[in-house]
Amino acid sequence: MKRVLTGDRPTGKLHLGHFVGSLKNRVKLQNEYDTFILVADVQALTDNFDQTGKIKDNLLNVIIDNLSVGIDPKKVTFYVQSLVPETAELTIYLMNFISFNKVLRNPTVKDEIAQKRDKFKGNPPFGFVAYPINQAADILTPRADIVPVGFDQAPMIENTNTIIKKINSLYGQIFNEVTPVFGDIGRLIGTDGSAKMSKSLGNTIYLSDTEEEVRSKVMKMYTDPNRVKSTDPGRVEGNPVFVYHDAFNSDTEEVKDLKERYVKGTVSDVEVKTKLVAAINKFLDPIRERRAYYERNIDEVYDILSAGTKRAREEGKKTLEILKEAMKINYNLFTN
Ligand code: ATP
Ligand code: MG
């Protein structure tokens, strides 16, 4: 059975962007692939070294967020990155198979460094710049074939394949290249209309938001800035309210009708938003129910993590064995 690896940084609760970008595909792929989902706490440290408490606080949240959308713990292996030291060991080896300049050219890392200029005082830690190599090690820990992610992760997959190709060219065909699977919406815009819904931008609707929180966020949402009155013809394309209607409203007839009336100027923003509140709450209801179950049965979550982490370590050990044997550094100096 082919394998999937993906995961989230425990830097906050998961939101609708995570759902359309990656979680939705995880739910689908879990039926066809042996799926591994990690909580990337080591990676989160690279830009949260000064807020480590936040990482611990979000660890269980992120697992419960995954379970709440319908990921089945009987099918999926969940694990904590820092409890699989094999990934850290692997990272050190992988550093040799990608050039310094290539790592520096990763466009997502460059964007993130620009965004975090104040935090990094213009001089990011080496660990942050190198995190795509650590992510390649995550992918190779269970030797995954498929990685369901949002668009911002495309350069990370490319870096991983650079590393895999280099290893294979040096030591023989030992690892398969990996394929990213992007969501139908690879980058969901924020409630403020900015390019990406993101924990760090405060423009999110969380999977764990209450009905009231959803209402208040949607009613404040950015729409078509040129539309002053509800009788003005409005723009549907790129309008966050309609992007969300398309993504989360299962009543396609209603969405079609709202769009037609919006373009003609015969529907108010308030009506469009009120219907969106109802649609998102309907979408979130079964998610809320599963969340409530796991919150009541938190011991189950610990058991899922502990069994999954054990399995991930076994797989990580196997990857190291394969690589070390191929590199001829699998000497048993002290065993015979
Ligand atoms: P941060 O804001 O702290 O950078 P994040 O919101 O980007 O965090 P991650 O844990 O880095 O969250 O991302 C987890 C997964 O969700 C990745 O595959 C990422 O591509 C995807 N993702 C995150 N935000 C979005 C979004 N707005 N649209 C689509 N996919 C997203
Ligand atoms: Mg991110």
TrEMBL record:
Its EC number is 6.1.1.2. It comes from the Bacteria. It holds the Pfam family tRNA-synt_1b. It catalyses: tRNA(Trp) + L-tryptophan + ATP = L-tryptophyl-tRNA(Trp) + AMP + diphosphate + H(+). CDD domains: TrpRS_core. One of its GO terms (biological process) is tryptophanyl-tRNA aminoacylation. It is an enzyme of class 6 (ligase). Keywords: Aminoacyl-tRNA synthetase, ATP-binding, Ligase, Nucleotide-binding, Protein biosynthesis. Gene3D superfamilies: HUPs, Tyrosyl-Transfer RNA Synthetase. SUPFAM superfamilies: Nucleotidylyl transferase. GO terms for molecular function: ATP binding; tryptophan-tRNA ligase activity. Coiled coil: none annotated. GO terms for cellular component: cytosol. Belongs to the class-I aminoacyl-tRNA synthetase family. This is Tryptophan--tRNA ligase. It comes from Candidatus Dojkabacteria bacterium. The gene is trpS.
